[in-house]
Amino acid sequence: MACLKSERHQSKTHGIDRLFTYISPLEDGVLNNLVTSVKFTSNEYPSNPSSTFKGHFFDLAKTLECFKNSEVRRDAIKNFGGVDSCANIGVLFWLSNSPQDRDILTEVSRCKGLDDFAYETIYVVDNKRISFIYDSILWLQSHFPTQEIEFFYPSTGKNINPLIKRSSGSILPIEYINSSVLLFKTVDSNNDSKTLIISSIENFSGSNLKRLIGLAQEISQDLNNSTVILFPDYDHLNHANEINQAKSIFTNQSFANSVKVASFRDDFRSMANE
Questions:
Q1: Residue 207, Cα to own-chain centre: how many angstroms?
Q2: Is 11 a residue whose pLDDT tops 80?
Q3: Cα(122)–Cα(109) distance, rounded to whole angstroms?
Q4: pTM for this predicted structure
Q5: For labelling alongside 261, which of 68, 83, 104, 246 has CA 20 to 30 A away?
Q6: Which domains does the chain have, with CATH numbers?
Q7: How far apart are CA 216 and CA 206, in angstroms?
């Protein structure tokens, strides 16, 4: 893509690793253009990641400045109708081949001077976040091999048009790409039974479980026949008592007792799951 501000950006072109355009399932009439930049290193993340991160971030921010007035953007949106507004969103994947689980997002969250360029929104995905998404999907594919698996789209107050409203789909809304919670729905075509799955990046605790059971009860709206809540470190032997205590506080005991808990990181211990 040609650079439209070559003197300011000190460049003649901008690279886009992938452009993905979709109609938002969370907000009626909004078209999202995702401008993706992938930065991959075979080494570990630097011990002080701020400087490298800012370089990657500014590269994408400059691209977004030019993208909003580019021919590439015009071509991307011309085939979509019924749209009231269009969002141009950057997605920076900063990934490392090293098997480390550092929370890079937290480490760079206090970086200053990131508003030097005119961009709308940039999401950042590190190893920890992409592993969470990947492991959650693998767990679903392993435990629901014959069922249709989709991302669950809760009501947001902005997706209210009944003619276009969808409760689930194959696209992960960009708003949730670095969320600490992922929502899924599975459907069994043999009997049309539905399961709501909530996967949490946070470790198991009684308080986290109470919060997620409450979330499940709020968003399910009787769309599901069962609910599964996943944690990275859940262990039935150590956590069973806390599950019973967490479930006991809910007025709707029928719903609370139907909730199952598991770990999305399977090993032989998972066979003892509740």
A1: 22
A2: yes
A3: 13
A4: 0.92
A5: 104
A6: 6-125 (no CATH), 130-272 (3.40.1350)
A7: 15
| Residue whose pair of structure tokens reads 């979330």 in the numeric block | 215
Is residue 234 within 8 Å of 263, Cβ to Cβ?
yes
* SS (HEC) of 7-23: HHHCCCECCCCEEEEEE
**CA distance linking residue 92 with residue 111, whole number of Å:** 15
* Mean pLDDT, the chain, whole residue set: 92
